[in-house]
Amino acid sequence: MVAVGAVGERRARLWLRADKPGPFVVQLRPRGGAPVRAEVPDRRSPGDDGTMAFTVPDDVGLAPLSPATQYSFRIAVAGTGELVGEGGFETAPPDGASAPYAFAFMSCHQPFGPDGSVRAESASMLAALEPALEARGVKYALLVGDQMYADAPAGRGLLRPARERPLVTLSPEEIRARYQSRYRRFWAPPEMRRLQSRRPTWCIWDDHEIVDDWGARRAHTRPEWRRVFGGARRAFVDYQASRAASFGPSLPGSFHQSFVWGQAATFVMDLISQRVFVGREARVYGDDQLEALKAFLREQRARPVLFVVLTVPPVYLPDWVVAAGERVPVMGSAFAARWNAARNRHALDRLFDALREHLRQAPGQKLALLSGDVHQGAALALHFPSGGRFYQFVSSPFTHVDGNWKAAVARRLAFTMRAVRHGAGRLKVERLACEGHARQNPFNGLNVGVVHVADGAVRFELLTSDGEAPGVARTAYDSGWL
Prior knowledge:
Immunoglobulin-like, Purple Acid Phosphatase, chain A, domain 2, 2 domains, eight-stranded mixed beta sheet, six-stranded mixed beta sheet, 23 strands
């Protein structure tokens, strides 16, 4: 398998997984131009599961790439010429370029039924994805959590192996290998490989890349669970985080990242790496990550459009629902991961404080939060009492057909609030109207979000598979231009 990671104006990060030893040969061809070739040394260690990432041109001795240019690439084993994979990408346009564009974001990829086969609904969604993205000229994709499930489908997860040693008894490297095997399984569908090889991808993880409701239980502070976290984190670096940067033996405390594409800039928060109980509160993110977000907002104040990726949406279930759910022992951990849970209130207030201050300084800027996790798609506008408005777009699930009790509760109560607490005050919550016939907000089916950017305005679509024509996408929701 090959994939495209972070891309800039003059460089691109490419990722591969291969069982054969290298070195490798990468061939790069700009549209309408002649191909260039370079040899890539094999820098993999035995624990990497055959994965490796490198940056063109920096790591291969080629000339810098050209901005806003379509490239195709091919990676092969140097000694035998055996193909590892091929794909393509477009480099970022010059900073500040005003050309309109679109990108996709999605979360919650779990297409398997109890017997381990791909569900029909999920297969239809997978088949519909690439033609729909091509038709909309999507430049890149944000994979915003739960790109694989360590704990699903039921009876087939890592935590309940039928004939294997329990996960919590293994060494970090054995745990890492178990999680690596999950990535191979979940990314086996050819549509998932095409999604990641035909356009740049920026990835961040969520709870299911470790275990459901990671960090929302005190048990996760125990040594055996911290060991599970360590193995899962290494596998996440192997398969996802290495697409954005190189890492050595010592990993960072957080995998937050940012990038610029023309008239818009994006900051991706990491809500998993630093999540832990601290006394009676939960730390959702570290001080360092919040300061990085504030610095990003200051630096990008003059840009027309900003996006902030939060794998879990800040506005989802009403306060009273979460407060009641936290008190029920068998349900408490499911609600403890919500931003408006009592233990997370401080983190939510600090986040909203940063956004409010930014909007005071940049009143004309479009700011949108992009989230997944909750197995519904939705579009909201949030209004601070003192002035300032921002949007929350949610896309989830991509392939996970969910029929449990949490989904049933969510479909009745999610996104029904008219206000959300912020400190001693409240933000007004507005469910956005719909354009044309696409009037499903929130939307309960499988979906992928597409965001269009043009002239400082944004438009949000939710795409789903057409039940009457499997493999064909239709628009379930369209916000129109905002």
